[in-house]
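Private note to self, pasted from the team thread so I don't lose it. Backbone tokens:
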């Protein structure tokens, strides 16, 4: 251990050809180290669900069940085939042994993750063997084994159903055979070298970099010796033949990546390479006080170890090349390309080389006590980083992760779906990040797919990884959400993202759309993923009123009533559970709204109350042609277009090639009477209209379909101010039955393209004595809230006996916006 042996005075031959040099105590120590590494790898093995990458492994294992040859078809799979094939064989063995692999259980996840776990455990004695041969020291070998056994980086991939543990084991094995072959030139060692590299190549295509690095090392050693073994030449030819199918798949991936027009990761810098070395020692921990010392100590000790081993000759060349060339080469290659596929995990074998150097540095201390103290401190810091891994506490910066994601609660979500899944249900996902874990592992056989609003969602996914046939075969390309809703009874909506706590802006469209087109039967936030059950069939006989719905961000469970006022859904939740200044909004009857603020600081809240008989929000609109992209929900990127009180709009874009008169519609319940219809539209100021589409409004009983025309609007003006403006769309007479409002867009004569931006639509009953126009609030004011002390928003005493009130709240400090639908009836709320 630290302070023993003098590797600089030993030769490779002295350590390998004298069996007595590795005595019983060394083997016992190695067994103990391996047992420690095994315990750390088995602990919490199935604590977290399988995530996207692991789901792709299960998907590939399913293809192997159909035919192992399918794993070599680059038209349907770009995964390396060996690990999926091993998983398939392992599952088959367990099944033959009578061990049930029930979907969604902890035991099943544990058993399938045993594959990388066992391989990673085997890599610990392999590390010892390689270090012993390269460094010529049992102490360095054992200490390197200890550092790998407790490494947060290696434990991470021991518990992930991916090929990185296999990559480590096979490349280390090839390295062991290579150093023996260089010394003995025996055919058995060259054969082992070829077999190990071939197995590694079929585990991960990144092996080509290790093949190239080993080849470079052999060439350098041969140049120094001024001779080259013909067996090495033969081995390279044999290796090329063996790995040709894998090379073919790898070339397909390279062409796909070359065609990618978006970047997954931040641009590479020199710092990226340094972070990679830090990751070798500290994993993905966010603890600066732990990973900075580990990085600094690891770098210093690696240099000390390399210096102490400088006389190792051939071994030193091999170690330096294997530690440095893959990292430097990838930094150079990917820095020159528009798309970077550089990931820290790809260099896991380089990390073992750095670990061997660091072990050499610890052994090189002349003062044994210093070496022991340094080793102890290393283990303490590693333990803190391991604790972070077990708690799934990972670095917040993308530079420090590069491909590492949270393992969200896919297992819990799938179990909840399985409990109540019935014929006519579908599972719809916001992102394909949950697709493979659910479809190929947790919910096999269930109808599962990703949803979107337009062709852009499909083309965007293909652009991010342009291999359409692979996505098609996996059923991962998004379908239009309104088409999915039109062909099912209920939708289980799985809402997650690659960065689950930082969803993209368009995330706000989907769940609100489902709330307005299906009755919420279930809604729960799990770790990193939200699950909702939306009864679409319950809405088809609508219209229904949606009560107490927050329009921006997360919102409380709504209450639904049918035209007769009977409940058909859940009662309203009393609180807004969303983070922010407005924590709670509660209905206390027809006379007041109670609001609380979670902060201990006083907040000033503005409120505006708008009255109408009924309103249609943009996401409540249905496209008559779901396959058309003329109408889409938007949040405008141009600040001038953003309406802070109602950010989500429906936008139409018409060209000569698009379908003219494309329309959207919504059904509403209106008591018998006459109503004015007001539409909130973006008005453009132009001398003559050159950009605005005409909007034609039709209305009538839902049973009459499109109904009669009530008005046409072209939202432009020759003078005035551009902005969101209320337009009078016409008048309709309700007979007390469900009414359908249809809005068609038309391209004005002579225009090649035109646009329309539509906000909410409100219905005002004529001569009812309410506000005369929806542009002005019925009531407004400010309130002050602090902590749990409630503030009351008074509703005006002159409210009509039955009506709808849209209440907007705005936190003047944060700008936080909340929106509440409020109904008042003769019997109270």
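Design output:
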């Amino acid at each position: 251990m630290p302070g023993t042996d003098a590797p600089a005075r030993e030769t490779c031959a002295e350590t390998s050809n004298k069996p007595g040099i590795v005595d019983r105590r060394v083997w016992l120590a190695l067994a103990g180290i391996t047992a420690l590494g095994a315990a750390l790898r088995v602990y919490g093995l199935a604590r977290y669900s399988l995530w996207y990458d692991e789901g792709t492994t299960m998907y590939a294992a399913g293809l192997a069940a159909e035919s192992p040859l399918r794993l070599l078809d680059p038209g349907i799979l770009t995964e390396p085939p060996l690990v999926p094939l091993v998983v398939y064989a392992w599952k088959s063995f367990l099944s033959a042994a009578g061990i049930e692999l029930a979907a969604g259980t902890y035991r099943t996840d544990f058993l399938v993750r045993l594959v990388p776990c066992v391989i990673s455990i085997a890599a610990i004695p392999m590390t010892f063997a390689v270090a012993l041969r390269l460094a010529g020291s049992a102490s360095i070998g054992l200490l390197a084994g200890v550092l790998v056994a407790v490494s947060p980086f290696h434990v991470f991939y021991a518990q992930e159903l991916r090929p990185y543990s296999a990559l480590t084991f096979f490349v280390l094995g090839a390295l062991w055979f290579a150093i023996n072959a260089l010394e003995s030139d025996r055919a058995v060692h060259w054969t082992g070298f070829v077999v190990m590299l071939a197995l590694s190549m079929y585990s991960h295509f990144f092996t080509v970099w290790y093949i190239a690095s080993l080849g470079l090392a052999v060439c350098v050693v041969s140049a120094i010796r001024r001779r080259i073994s013909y067996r090495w030449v033969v081995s390279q030819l044999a290796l090329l033949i063996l790995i040709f199918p894998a090379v073919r798949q790898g070339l397909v991936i390279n062409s796909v990546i070359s065609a990618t027009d978006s970047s997954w990761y931040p641009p590479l810098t020199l710092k990226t390479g340094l972070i990679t070395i830090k990751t070798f020692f500290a994993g993905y921990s966010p603890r600066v006080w732990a990973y900075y010392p580990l990085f600094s100590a690891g770098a210093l000790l690696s240099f000390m170890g390399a210096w102490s081993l400088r006389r190792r000759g051939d071994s030193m060349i091999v170690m330096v090349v294997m530690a440095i060339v893959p990292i430097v080469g990838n930094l150079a290659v990917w820095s020159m390309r528009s798309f970077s596929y550089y990931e820290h995990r790809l260099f896991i074998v380089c990390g073992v080389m750095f670990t061997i150097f660091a072990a050499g540095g610890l052994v090189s201390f002349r003062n044994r006590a210093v070496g022991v103290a340094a080793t102890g401190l290393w283990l303490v810091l590693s333990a803190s980083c391991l604790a972070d891994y077990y708690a799934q506490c990972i670095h917040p910066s993308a530079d420090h992760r590069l491909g590492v994601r949270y393992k969200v609660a896919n297992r819990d979500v799938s179990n909840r779906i399985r409990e109540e899944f019935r014929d006519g249900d579908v599972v719809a996902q916001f992102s394909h990040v949950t697709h493979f874990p659910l479809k190929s592992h947790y919910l096999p056989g269930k109808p599962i797919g990703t949803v979107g609003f337009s062709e852009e969602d499909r083309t965007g996914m293909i652009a991010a990884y342009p291999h359409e046939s692979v996505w098609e075969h996996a059923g991962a390309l998004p379908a239009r959400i309104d088409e999915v809703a039109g062909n099912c009874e209920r939708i289980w909506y799985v809402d997650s993202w690659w960065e689950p706590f930082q969803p993209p802006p368009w995330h706000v469209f989907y769940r609100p759309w489902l709330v307005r087109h299906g009755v919420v039967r279930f809604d729960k936030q799990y770790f990193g993923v939200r699950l909702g059950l939306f009864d679409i069939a319950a809405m088809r006989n609508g219209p229904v009123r949606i009560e107490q719905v927050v329009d921006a961000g997360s919102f409380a469970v709504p209450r639904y009533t049918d035209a007769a006022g009977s409940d058909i859904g859940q009662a309203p939740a009393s609180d807004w559970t969303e983070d922010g200044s407005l924590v709670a909004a509660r209905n206390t009857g027809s006379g007041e709204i109670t609001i609380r603020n979670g902060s201990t600081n006083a907040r000033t809240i503005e409120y505006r109350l708008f009255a109408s008989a009924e309103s249609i929000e943009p996401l409540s609109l249905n496209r008559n042609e779901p396959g058309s992209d003329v109408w889409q929900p938007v949040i405008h990127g141009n600040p001038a277009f953003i309406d802070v009180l109602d950010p989500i709009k429906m936008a139409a874009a018409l060209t000569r090639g698009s379908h003219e008169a494309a329309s959207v519609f919504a059904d509403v319940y209106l008591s018998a009477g006459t109503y004015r219809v007001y539409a909130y539209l973006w008005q453009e100021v132009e001398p003559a209209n050159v950009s605005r589409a005409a909007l034609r409004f039709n209305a009538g009983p839902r049973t009459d379909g499109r109904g009669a025309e009530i008005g046409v609007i072209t939202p432009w003006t020759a003078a005035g101010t551009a902005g969101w403006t209320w337009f009078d769309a016409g008048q309709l007479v309700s007979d007390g039955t469900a009414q359908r409002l249809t809005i068609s867009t038309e391209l004005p004569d002579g225009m090649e393209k035109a646009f329309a931006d539509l906000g909410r639509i409100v219905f005002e009953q004529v001569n009812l004595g309410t506000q005369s126009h929806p542009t002005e609030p019925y009531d407004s004011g400010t309130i002050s809230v602090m902590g749990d002390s409630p503030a009351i928003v008074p509703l005006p005493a002159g409210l009509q006996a039955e009506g709808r009130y849209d209440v907007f709240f705005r936190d003047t400090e944060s700008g936080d916006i909340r929106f509440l639908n409020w109904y008042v009836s003769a019997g109270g709320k």
